[in-house]
Specification:
Layout lengths: L3 E24 L9 E11 L4 E6 L5 E7 L3 E14 L4 H5 L1 H4 L7 H4 L2 H6 L13 H8 L8 H15 L1 E2 L10 H7 L1 E2 L1 H14 L4 E8 L16 E8 L5 E5 L4 E2 L4 E7 L8 E7 L4 E12 L20
Parallel strand pairs: 6-7
Antiparallel strand pairs: 1-4, 1-5, 1-13, 1-14, 2-5, 3-4, 8-9, 8-12, 9-10, 10-11
InterPro entries: Bac_transglu_N, Papain-like_cys_pep_sf, Transglutaminase-like
Pfam families: Bact_transglu_N, Transglut_core
Organism: Gordonia paraffinivorans NBRC 108238
């Protein structure tokens, strides 16, 4: 397999039935620069034009964008454009000794290096706790004594894909892992969080990763612009201080079809967009449109946006 280049568009539009006098927002919509991912251009556009805006880097190395709109408005649109090149799965990572080590040896507590101590944050449970007896029992079926880490993670990926039903609208962002375990249905964010809870229940470091998945239209049909969705998956820490990312929603390791935006301990660390508004409005509506389109040459997607000073649920 060879690298693939994508033009990504992510548009979020809020509409209100009364004026919004002030709107504060923070978004994670700029793809990360990684060893296997190169960002050729990125811009976040906001309408109405913000009175104040800035970009920064959070504690996990993600780029975020902050804005404050003080112009009265009944519609707010945030659109992120980027051109990203993604490499196939690094076979050296998958087949290397760190991935092949017995999973018990991949616990940060067992490694003891400075990097392991930093990774230990990703072992901690959330508050409220997500590691329940059901999670521990599910993980124990996969992580048998001495099993190579990559083999166990691959098995966990397949089991979640097989045991859980993808059903859009079955859950909300606030739905707990224990509820997903009981119902055996959800969406990509749920399956990533189930996998993360399983890994953490065993003392392994796991993180939540957000991004996009390039999807192909059904045979004989044209791709519909804007019909894609944001996506989420999980990653497990390896003793050589690298992370192995996997996608339980699609039963595969993260590869050249995945565009990585941001990562953290959970969804709440890296939501695409969140904010606060001041208004007397009693009704609001949100519409999200995402498009991930392959292109042949990175230069094809640059256009005028390459000169901009602002860098900003699929199955």
């Amino acid at each position: 397999m060879t690298s693939r280049v994508y033009r990504v568009m992510h548009r979020t539009r809020y509409t209100y039935n009364d004026d919004v006098s002030s709107s504060y927002g923070r978004c994670y919509l700029t793809p990360r620069e990684l060893p296997g991912q190169r960002v050729h251009s990125a811009v976040v556009e906001i309408e109405p034009e913000p009175d104040d805006r800035s970009t920064g880097v959070d504690v996990y190395g993600n780029q975020d964008s902050y804005f404050h709109v003080r112009t009265a408005h009944r519609e707010l649109t945030v659109t992120a454009h980027s051109v990203v090149e993604v490499d196939p799965v690094d076979q050296g990572l998958v087949l290397g000794p760190a991935a092949r080590t017995p999973w018990e040896s991949a616990r940060p507590a067992a490694v003891g290096t400075r990097e392991a101590r930093l990774a230990a944050e990703f072992v901690l449970d959330l508050d409220p706790p997500e590691i329940t007896p059901a999670v521990r029992e599910y993980a124990a079926q996969v992580f048998t004594p001495g099993r190579p880490l990559v083999e166990a993670v691959t098995d966990l990926t397949t089991r979640i894909y097989t045991d859980f039903t993808y059903r859009s609208g079955a859950t909300a962002i606030s739905t707990r892992v224990d509820t997903v375990m009981r119902r055996r249905e959800g969406v990509c964010q749920d399956f990533a969080r189930v996998a993360i809870a399983c890994l953490r229940s065993l003392g392994l470091a796991a993180r939540y990763e957000s991004g996009y998945l390039a999807t192909d239209p059904p045979p004989g049909q044209e791709k519909v612009f804007g019909a894609d969705a944001s996506h989420a998956w999980a990653a497990v820490w390896l003793p050589d201080d690298r992370w192995l990312a996997f996608d339980p929603t699609n039963d595969k390791l993260v590869d050249e079809r995945h565009v990585t935006l941001a990562w953290g301990r959970d969804y709440d660390d890296v939501p695409p967009l969140r904010g606060v508004i001041y208004t007397d409005s009693t009704k609001s509506q949100i519409d999200v449109s995402v498009d991930v389109s392959p292109i042949e040459d990175p230069a094809d997607g640059l256009g005028d946006r390459a000169d901009s000073p602002e860098s900003g649920a699929a199955r």
